[in-house]
Amino acid sequence: MSEDTEEKKKLADFVKSVHRDLRKKFKSGEKSIGSIWEEHCQNTEILQDYAAAMQKLATEYWGPQQLERIQWCRKTLLEYFKSGGMKKCIEKDSKRLQREKKEAECIPDNSDESSVSCKRINKYLEIRNHIPERPRVLDVGSCYNPFKDLQEFEVIGIDLHPATEDVYQCDFLNLEIYNVEEPVKLFHTLSSPISRLPSCVFNVIIFCLLLEYFPSSQQRWKCCVQAHKLLAPDGLLVIISPDSHKQHRNSSMIRSWITAITSLGFSKWKYEKLEHIHCIVFRKMEDECCVTDDMAELMYIHQDALKEDLGDDNTGHNNPVVERDNEEIRQAMLELPGLPLDFED
């Protein structure tokens, strides 16, 4: 084994060990997930080593893969904001909502349902007419600010423990989100640590290799709830999740995520499975976040089913991962790779 290969393995093993330790503590049930997370956030030595390891892996060892993620994001955001994607979505929504408005107007005048429906639709149509010149991007779990060179966008990187000075320290899970009446000059007022941000000010939020960090589905769910609150109307939530297996491997997990996240008031705009990653883009459709916490369990990951004390290579007839994989293969037959998953009007 070469020296570079050995170092890469050492760094990757350390990163995995941090994730595994969080999962072990959560699955033991000895402490609440809030207490586990609070302790983790206070362990500055582990956080610093983790940030350094992730930065080195991304910049020195993941070269082509990391570049692929950045380029895919740039291409996708330009397609939406600069090449008519957003405008097309708004026009499509407008036609649908106009039809709904006509139907609502047919309801008797004294009907509360008619009044509420018309007001909601009018508000929706009024605010969806502005495409930002330089969309604001919030990169959550940024580490070393890999998207800073996207010149067409204003990028803010936040991380639990930043690896570089141009990333703000922030615990996204416990971030306070407050309402504002007027647009704010966000970039001129930020300083580390960030503990609160205004709602509806970002046009894009990126979760790149983020959700797998958290040991519980409830935390992943809360991240998506936070994203909905921070996004402006028609803003995008971009989720990049690692997966080097074939298309069907985690297809049921991805469908589960889509079901959960769209229930918040998002619609799925784009999905692609690249060689090492799943790329999913959601568009904020509803101003109000429709939170039903019973959907949180749908935000599971493959590792949730592992018995951590036996390591990540469990085998056997009673292994829940094997059972889940069999279901994934069956479910994957219901869709063809590359076809859109959402329903078109």
Give an overview in words.
With 345 residues, this protein is an alpha/beta fold. It contains nine helices and nine strands. It has two domains: 5-83 and 135-332, Vaccinia Virus protein VP39 (Rossmann fold, 3-Layer(aba) Sandwich), CATH 3.40.50.150; 86-127. The protein has a seven-stranded mixed β-sheet, sandwiched between helices.
Order of helices and strands: HHHHHHEEEEEEHEHEEH
Question: What is the C-alpha radius of gyration, as a whole number of Å?
Answer: 21 Å
Main β-sheet: number of strands, strand sense, barrel status? 7 strands, mixed
CATH topology of the largest domain: Rossmann fold
Span between termini: 55 Å
Shape: globular
Q: What fraction strand?
A: 15-25%
User: At the fourth CATH level, what is the homologous superfamily of the largest domain?
Assistant: Vaccinia Virus protein VP39
> How do the strands of the widest beta sheet line up side by side?
3-2-1-6-7-9-8
